[in-house]
Amino acid sequence: MKNLEHILLNTLCKEGWGIVGIHHHHGFDVFLNGLRTATSGGIGEYLDLIPLIDWCKKLGMDVIQLLPLNDSGLDPSPYNAISSCALNPIFLKLSALPYLDTLPALSDKIEMLYEYNIMPITAYQEVLKEKMDWLRQYIEEVAPHIEKEQEYQHFQAAFPWIESYSLFKTLLLKFDYASWETWPNEYRQPTPEKRCELNETYTNEIAFHTILQYLCFQQLIHVKEHAEKHHVFLKGDLPILISRNSSDVWQDPQFFDLLHTAGAPPDQYSTEGQNWGFPLFNWDAMRQDNYRFWKERLQAAGNFYHLYRIDHTVGFFRIWGIPLNHPSRDGHFFPSEPSQYLPQGSHILSMLAASSTMLPIAEDLGTVPPEVRICLKELGIPGTRVMRWELDWTKPPPQPFIPLKEYWPLSMTCVSTHDSETLGGWWKSHSQDAARWAHHKHWHYSPELSHEHRKSYLRDSHHTSSLFHVNLLQEYLALYPELIAANPDEERINVPGTISPNNWTYRYRPTVETIVSHKGLLSDIRSLVGI
Questions:
Q1: What Å distances lie between residue 522 and 116, 471, 480, 496, 514, CA to CA?
Q2: Band of the pLDDT at 450, cuts 50, 70, 90?
Q3: pTM confidence score
Q4: How many whole angstroms separate alpha carbon 397 and alpha carbon 514?
């Protein structure tokens, strides 16, 4: 470990490692949308993380990972953000907002949202509408007070992107969420003079969205401060791509390749490939601008997180680009040659590592050229290891599982991801692979995942050679069948490459209060971690 410590403290990520510490870290991954407390307004909220931080400490863990919290407009998918920096106001805890004690009529209306808490899935769009209607009334009353606050004025000055985002959001609502590419030309590509005119015309509406962001920042910064008091680290998630219909693309279209969309080539899991619909980046233009887009993202995220997940890390090296209105199979990698994509990816990741004190952890799953993982090691950036997929590809089929003690320390071990089946779902739907794992562990295989085998699998995930061990919260809840759905498919958050009403509407069965007061769950998780 001493040798590894010496290596890591001489990488570009040395500040992040210095903050987090070079030792084993354990934690759980939370889909904020799916939480609910007695005072949640129909959806998980920023301040609902406070009791989970206290619980995390009791568990002997020190990391809480979160899925993206960016403003995604009407879409519940946090990976389809309409801003790379702005937070989603749907997660505001209304009952904790300032000056509310002077507005009893509005305070009473908050309880109307509680009916959405009892629904088995998250009613994202319904809750969004109700909350935004309430927030409009609230901000109309309190805006004069907030705008006088020195902290609010500092917030506006500290984040240059807020002005463009607030104007874009104003126009997006004006045109009923229609793509900015369909707006009248004076709005689609406004001149500096026109922008000044728009800012004057929509002063109150722009202030509304700016104040919303200020309130979001206040609540999430409070969460981070609470985590630091308890020596718990928050890990955020920065999606590599951004919605075509976003304030970033509208403001700086030159940074994006709008003639192609990102996706994945055909493979054994998808014979047609995948088309995600997001524009590619124009890396040359971004480099000429000194990567302002990425540095602003990191600056904003650094207010909330100590670590962050680099989504689709291989995409910084090469990404599957598909011509507009073509199937995925017609795409190709941009760039395609290692002589081009290795220097590109190394340069970009070096910039990311050097631009923030947060420690990045790469999502390097799927088909990743081996040179990419070598680059991550050189930069001191941990990768991700999903145990069921960790096979020794140097051996002939059927490839054996890599021994847990042979995982590279610069990695995060997990048993599943938000894009995969949970452990229970995998055991049910991939019986052949599950049987191979049972054979690997010298277990007696059964089509039903037993309690002891589930517990053993989770325990193993906390005792690999990886420095990080983080699993989805529902993987731990599954130790008690009454805390999860009977059908493990209902415990899945998202199925990539599909459009389904089940995607991103997942809700944890128990409330946060039930989770943190469950003595058996507390005892079991502590034993899994080794306490």
A1: 28, 15, 11, 32, 11
A2: very high
A3: 0.97
A4: 45
